[in-house]
Amino acid sequence: MKALPLLLLLCSTSILLHAQNSKDKKWKLVWEENFNGSQLDTSIWNYEVNDEGGGNHELQYYTARKENSYLENGLLHIKAIKEPYLTRQYTSARITTKGKADFTFGKMEIRAKIPVGRGMWPAIWMMPTDSKFGHWPWSGEIDIMETKGQEPDSLYGTIHFGPAYPNNRYLGSKLVRVTPDGWGDDFHTYAIIWQKNKIEWLVDGVKFHEGTIANVTNIKNVPYPFNERFHFILNMAVGGDFLGNPDDSILPKEFLVDYVKVYQEQ
């Protein structure tokens, strides 16, 4: 989610892959978060609290307040609000499992409903827990799903790797669903099948993208960082380089997450 210049390039240059059904596999559920209960389980999740802008000049202040993230009816609500708060005029939430639920390989599946509207940037992604190869993006980034609120018919799946900006690299694709609210019409299931030296992206069980070690290591002196431990990040950014200024009239907006599940292949 960090490398906006690259994502902007991706928006204009990515070639849509023909969707294809993923191969049948037998999966065993090994970890799940269903967001039941009255409050977020902090034995699993960390709140990130900052106004750093995500490296993209985003406009939100991420808080740990119930106004910006809460559980209700078995759903996680991440809520972006237009309000003056410390150094910012918008608030939202970003939570991670770093150091509490870290994973290497498996099927990562998240059921969620994205918001629609200019300036909303919901994302489901993973970052390296140990940063074995160095700072971003040397140690990688896996974007399972992200969308631009003003373009809800398009979603993106991407990996980031390689040297520091402006020489950083990415491999990604865009999946289009042409309906009035696009991917924001209802809940959808977003997943990756993450194996040694290979990652596949799926939406509602249909594969639309793939990245392999060959795609990464064919670049001189660039390691393949995706065989290490990664953790989940769920957030909704507001505005910034990727989206431009938000439409204040639509706020508040909510990003809803039903569950996060991890399976291992049997």
Automatic annotation (TrEMBL):
GO molecular function, one term: hydrolase activity, hydrolyzing O-glycosyl compounds
InterPro entries given in the database record: Beta-glucanase-like, ConA-like_dom_sf, Glycosyl_Hydrlase_16
GO terms of biological process kind: carbohydrate metabolic process
Family matches, as Pfam families: Glyco_hydro_16 (PF00722)
Domain named GH16: residues: 29-266
Signal peptide: 1-19
Keyword vocabulary terms for this entry: Signal
Family: Belongs to the glycosyl hydrolase 16 family.
Protein name: Family 16 glycosylhydrolase
